[in-house]
């Protein structure tokens, strides 16, 4: 296995194989098999482009040859930052066939994040689109190349300028190495709690198991049509069951450039979409948009909502508005995914975040001392299972804190389990803000702000928000003359961080409230800002 990754202990691996979870299949083979079985069927739709399984499979082989010709080889890490385009799938599967590992960056990441991924993963290549939503990724690539001299290749989908154009890389197929199913297939990103995102190594065996199980739970088959509105590199639309689960089932993926009802509703109508996945804020926008459109959305069978807590009040409106089944999804890139089942009662679907997808998922709910809490009580969620990692990539010290000695992952989520075994998310004990599904690690942004000469200290907390659920508020203790809010925001933008990490609000404060042991009390700060928001709403 790739150096820096933690394997499952032998007895667990044996059990997961014996029980038929891990079946020895790789992504490369999976696509080949689907192409052999459903060759002429459409795998992917993007605008007016329709790509069959056979064509996708062949393009993957040709691109794999081109990538190999650049010297990209087994175990190389390749930072992949593409929006929802057909090439995302070609590149992804080409890398899988070579045995090189995509690192799944998001389109919203900027130079700070991308440089870190490239450096930390010692990436040999970085793959981008030319321009997207007015942003020029080649400019970003120039910056990253300057910071990371070891990065050898920048490959561009579109106008390549001084870089390598992907169109030049479709070559005659060559033999590719034999890939082992227990090898790491790619590195996914964590939302991050302490500082920067951690990298999550997922194997072919474990991830394909999660796709297969997810596809079964969502009843996907070759007639399913999955609409991807969230960025497909994210674990949720990638795998729960997402685009890869759809390919697993031999269905069809429809790519949208974003979640606007204008685009998405037209695609649902035109392509007869059967299932799609949203985060809570988007679900709210869609609910409100239905009244003012007359698209035929009758093909939609399942609307998934996950990534952040979906309020029961809003959840109730899904079935009457869309005449389809709501499915709540509570998952994490580290592994464990919970689903409400399609035939669950409305009560369960509206009020819970689902139950683990696999009978082999182990769940514990514990207090601060890792003792199990009583039935129905709230506690920290720990989990272990056939598709939950045993450690982050190259993070020994952090792993000692994030995993128990017997291999349970500390999710940082506070949950309770009801009598039927369904989980209800009650909060969080990790230093993270969940901005409508986008995770912000407080410490990462605090560190950026601390680099400003007029910032003495800073603490970032969540504040309640009707639309996103939570937004970020930075409490700043100034050094000398206080900077302005716009100074600080500009400063952060110039440091090249993703826009969703820029604090929504900045409050200046003289000193921080403290806990009994003299640490900054974020709990108190959350109260301060919540009360302030409350009083401004009322006045
Ligand atoms: P990440 O570690 O970045 O993959 O984010 C996973 C985290 O997102 C989980 O640990 C939860 O904190 C949060 N999350 C995902 N889905 C839900 C959901 N349906 N309800 C509440 N929180 C969720
Ligand atoms: O938020 C997540 O990371 C997430 C949500 C739903 C996830 O990774 C998943 C399903 O697989």
TrEMBL record:
PROSITE patterns reported in the protein's UniProt record: AMP_BINDING (PS00455)
Pathway this chain belongs to: Siderophore biosynthesis
Gene3D superfamilies in the cross-refs: 3.30.300.30, 3.40.50.980, Luciferase, Domain 3 (2.30.38.10)
Domain (AMP-binding enzyme C-terminal): residue spans on this chain: 444-519
Name by which UniProt lists this protein: (2,3-dihydroxybenzoyl)adenylate synthase
Listed PANTHER family: LONG-CHAIN-FATTY-ACID--COA LIGASE, NONRIBOSOMAL PEPTIDE SYNTHASE PES1 (EUROFUNG)-RELATED
Pfam families: AMP-binding (PF00501), AMP-binding_C (PF13193)
UniProt keyword list: Ligase
Domain (AMP-dependent synthetase/ligase): residue spans on this chain: 31-393
